[in-house]
Specification:
about 300 residues, Alpha-Beta Plaits, alpha+beta, Serine Threonine Protein Phosphatase 5, Tetratricopeptide repeat, 16 helices, 3 domains
């Protein structure tokens, strides 16, 4: 990441547009860039400005109130644990327990849109498990009306097509058209990409720091560079792009090392996937806005080929 450029852009933004809506957030990222450059005096100066101008801002509290971050993490962990209990009850066919847990879900969990969608999707599945096909179809159709752009909507539509008679829906044949867009280029430049699911801006920076520490420990001489972009229209999944490797072989060595040392790679309970990818194929997954087709291609042309 070009921290000098980041500082330049944010400094201009904060100078030209004083008091704009996301000023506190911009200050937060500016102080982070200064820290990454080793200029801690400048970073502290911006933190002081945040405290003076936006004492109640979430980003200010993250930096200045250790208890705030702990409380926020505990609250998020409590939500995740409660949802996990619902999910486990359902997947273990304990449908009555899953329904009871949904009925008694705390208000703060239901108020969190991310978890509300997940819980409503399980609720629709419960209709199929306890009431039958017709009720399942109605429940899925109702879910799609409420959340047409959710990730769960993809599975809901596939299930509906299957229930209504299109039994080839789950066949990998449906991926063949997009799979043809990928090409194996073993001797061309490669990247490593990390797809991080449902990640906040704050957490993505922590993930990047974890990866940077891993690279400094195990791949310092390669001088790998990191950047990240959003990978979905909802702004919850991101790609971390790591460049570059001269060939597929070099990228796959990194991939295999990460698989062996996953606990050193990304700390914490983060939902992520790692792939080696050529420049051309990277452009293609950005166009498709999905990793699913490439995942099939990658397993066939990279992972399976290693086993031969």
């Amino acid at each position: 990441m070009n921290y000098d450029k980041s500082v330049e852009i944010l400094e201009k933004l904060l100078t030209r547009f004083t008091g704009f809506t996301d000023e506190c957030k911009a200050m937060y990222y500016l102080q982070m860039s200064y820290k990454d450059l080793g200029n801690f005096d400048k970073a502290q100066s911006w933190i002081s400005k945040m405290k003076n101008s936006y004492p109640e801002c979430v980003y200010t509290k993250i930096l200045t109130d250790p208890e705030f971050a702990k409380k926020a993490n505990r609250a998020q962990d409590a939500k995740a644990m409660y949802y996990e209990d619902i999910y486990n009850a359902f997947t273990n066919n304990n449908f009555a327990a899953a329904q009871t847990k949904i009925n008694n879900a705390p208000a703060e969990l239901i108020a969190d849109q991310k978890y509300k969608i997940k819980i409503d999707f399980i609720q629709a599945k419960l209709a199929g498990s306890t009431k039958g096909k017709d009720d399942y179809i109605l429940a899925l159709e109702d879910f799609l009306k409420q959340y047409p752009d959710s990730k769960e909507a993809i599975s809901a539509r596939e299930t509906l097509r299957f229930l209504k008679g299109d039994k080839d829906t789950f066949s990998k044949i449906i991926y063949e058209e997009n799979l043809e867009e990928f090409t194996y280029e073993g001797d061309k430049m490669h990247y490593i990409i990390v797809i991080v699911k449902e990640i906040s801006d704050q957490d993505i920076e922590e993930v990047k720091t974890s990866i940077s520490n891993y690279n400094n420990t195990f791949y310092k001489l390669d001088r790998l560079k990191l950047s990240n972009i959003y990978f979905d229209t909802k702004g919850i999944d991101q790609i971390i792009l790591m460049r570059k490797f001269d060939t597929a072989e070099g990228a796959m060595k990194y991939y295999n090392d990460v698989k062996k040392q996953s606990s050193d790679f990304i700390k914490g309970n983060i939902n992520y996937e790692v792939f080696a990818i050529s420049q051309k194929n990277y452009r293609e997954i950005i166009k498709q806005k999905s990793i699913e087709n490439y995942k099939i291609f990658f397993n066939k042309n990279y992972v399976e080929q290693q086993k031969k």
